[in-house]
Amino acid sequence: MTTPSHSSTFGRADAAAAGLGSGALGLGIAQALAAVLHASPTPLIALGDRFIDLTPRPLKEWAVERFGTADKPVLLGNMLVVTAVLLLAVGVAARWRRPLGPVGFAVLGAVDALALASGRHGADPSSYVALVVGLAVGSGVLWWFTVPVVPEPEAEAPPGFDRRRFLLLATATGAAGAVAGLGVPRLVPGETGRAGISLPRATDPAPRLARGADFRLPGLTPHLTSNDDFYRIDIALLTPRLNVDDWKLRVRGMVDQPFELTYRELLAMPLVERRVTLACVSNPVGGEYVGNATWLGVRVADVLERAGVKAGADAVQSRGADGITIGTPLAALTDGRDALLAIGMNGKPLPIDHGFPVRMVVPGLYGYVSATKWITELEVTQYADFTAYWTQRGWAPEGPVKTGCRIDLPGDNVKAGEVTVAGVAWAQHRGIGKVEVRVDDGPWQPAELAAEDGIDTWRQWRWTWPASAGTHRIEARATDLHGATQTGEVVDVAPDGATGYPSLAVHVG
Ligand SMILES: Nc1nc2c(c(=O)[nH]1)N[C@H]1C(S)=C(S)[C@@H](COP(=O)(O)O)O[C@H]1N2
Ligand SMILES: [Mo]
């Protein structure tokens, strides 16, 4: 008989399970250890970050469109599935040639180490420690499992020891560890100090909201977006949880006097409160990635003035704790508009997802060139000297918001008669002067505008439609206060924002 005897004692399925079990245990230990050591990023997150950074633009757009804000859980899920398949393969390989177990683990570990080393911001040494310990345990367990049991399998393990049960346990422990490693940084309560913050009053409060700025129509987007309903877009796989007592803003680059600012110092500066509509460049026509909030913060211009901007600078490169870099035209921060380092959103300290403790908000610019969350640095510089995160990926270096609008009402099905058509329109820092509606390519008809709330916010509009039976197509277009009307040319979101009239097909019964 020439059949290798070990293949009769454990089959390919067992071996695959062994690869998965030992790998999951190793990964779980690595993740959990990283969490305990406060290592950033953890081995799994490093991989995810690299994946996000290297994803080609069309795939990323597809993911954002398809999964919206759930794109990150979906990414993590896919990563775990791919990792599981690789681990199954390592197990099968190790059954064939025992050293292929450790070799396979080493290869996977090397890929992860590379992700750690080449990440957005270097990894902590403890991240590598966690990875190596996880690898050692994982490949040790696989080595032990794939011991060639020649004549008496029982001799290799203590009597009554059930390898299968052990593997099941290892997989479960590993998975729990991996999940814990992902979750621990989120679950540790109180460490940000956010709960203890009471925001000072604005020295320069927002003007009172004009009566009639909100039609209060059921189904129509409210004029102010609540913190919970505000869209969220960022590259942070794990939301940075910065501690307010440790936070500092570095102001540097082409300045006379570089300096650092603590949260306390920021709060002691004059505080401005403004309503500003924020929009994402990835918002498709008719999309949801736009919101309007009341922001409380310090003027970026005040901070820059304290540093003293040198001649020749034309940009500010800001950094967020998630490793992003964002380039903003210096002019937009100093031309008198309300560009803020915001600490408050709708009366609350900035929510963690929206950039706690401090983010930037600049009226008139898309978020990717202005709205740096978890901000840690302002570097005064020149566009010629840097390429920001999104610009490296093909998006335009400067991103003024394009005039646009959305149709929220009515739904797809209405009864014939007078029907309210309504929505919101935006042209941040230019203001909305007119919205028009047309049905089935008929003449453009002026809609009623809600009371103006300054030029930096969106504006609700409504129009009464004498709807007749049949299927109709409604379109809308906005014109800013300078008289420029949004274009009907259909352009995709990349590289500098979508255009085209929003349209709605309505069945009138
Ligand atoms: N640190 C950081 N800030 C960021 C981003 C990011 O990925 N990381 N994304 C930007 C983009 S593309 C947009 S549209 C806005 C979204 O802000 P919100 O999530 O509070 O709505 O944040 C901007 N600021
Ligand atoms: Mo964005």
TrEMBL record:
Pfam families: Oxidored_molyb (PF00174). The chain crosses the membrane at residues 75-94, 128-146, 166-184. Keywords: Membrane, Transmembrane, Transmembrane helix. Residues 239-389 form the Oxidoreductase molybdopterin-binding domain. The keyword Membrane applies. This is Oxidoreductase. SUPFAM superfamilies: E set domains, Oxidoreductase molybdopterin-binding domain.
